[in-house]
């Protein structure tokens, strides 16, 4: 049986459901998958990933002294396999001394992970995100003599892309979630084999939309409801949204802004809300469970995103499949899902006045008695749903992921094996068929 180790920085994580979904898709095809996590998961909020028990997740923490010593022994014994990676860490590139020191420690953790996997018959290691977990996975794969692949999303490529040159050079394949990301990789890492950079889109489930598409009659006056969903982190730039809401208030707009999510920026945002006297209008409602998201989206007149860096956010897919209007910055892969004036609306990144102006414009349209204006917004809502159903459908994209992933493993790592003797004969595995998403690669 094909055995794959699947590593994430933290697993399970409520904000990264796609990791568990991919593991389940591979298991459905008869592949043995060993879920791994560098950090301990937040047991207080397992989210929808209750199907993964704590005992089956290979977690590197807490670190065990005896295993750390064995990791040193394995690294010394097979030094020639990782010597070039250590040279890259210490002697090449423009990384800071602090970053180099951390990467040396991550090399040790890579040997640690290899010790944990050594007796499990692993054929391949895949890792989600290009953060430090990808270096750990790469080192472990080298020491075990198996292949390694990774999935790049957004900030791990565009903001925190440490040692990506080495990771992209050594990986068998690199999946990434947008065509923008693929172009970025090929432009900034010209030595990378173009054939191993593959677009693998995320997706969401289709939902019934009848109640979501109900419009508020123009003669019914109520507050404009803005909804923002995302971790309270600096890269999501919720402070930008707070300042925008202060402008809306100053211009006499009756509104409320509901922000779902938790994170390290909460105290700063609470202070900023008080400073701008937005208490009661700008509400930090904390973590919202998956089962409660429908109720939140149902309240939304407009779902807004203010991130400085993104891949293609699931929140946009979730909102659009429910026929919600969305407003997002024109960055990275977002224009691949939000086509301005057709499936949603975009604003100039970082431009507060442009962001506010578009909200004011949409507020007028939503409350207009002009049938043409109302009809135009309805068409955008329906087009948004069609866009997600066609290109960001979770079930369809997971099937495409499984097809492509197993094809890559089979052709690159196991071509010499007699695949007819594998335990795949009674599974749903089949060669990938031609499809719209993969044609974009």
Characterization of this structure:
It contains 16 helices and 13 strands. The protein is of the alpha/beta class and 441 residues long. The chain folds into two domains: 3-203 and 393-439, Glycogen Phosphorylase B (Rossmann fold), CATH 3.40.50; 224-391, Glycogen Phosphorylase B (Rossmann fold, 3-Layer(aba) Sandwich), CATH 3.40.50.2000. The strands form two sheets. The protein has a seven-stranded parallel beta sheet with strand order 3-2-1-4-5-6-7, sandwiched between helices. A six-stranded parallel beta sheet has the order 10-9-8-11-12-13, with helices on both faces. Helix 1 (17-28) crosses helix 15 and helix 9 (238-250) crosses helix 13. The longest helix is centred in the first third of the chain and has 21 residues, at 97-117.
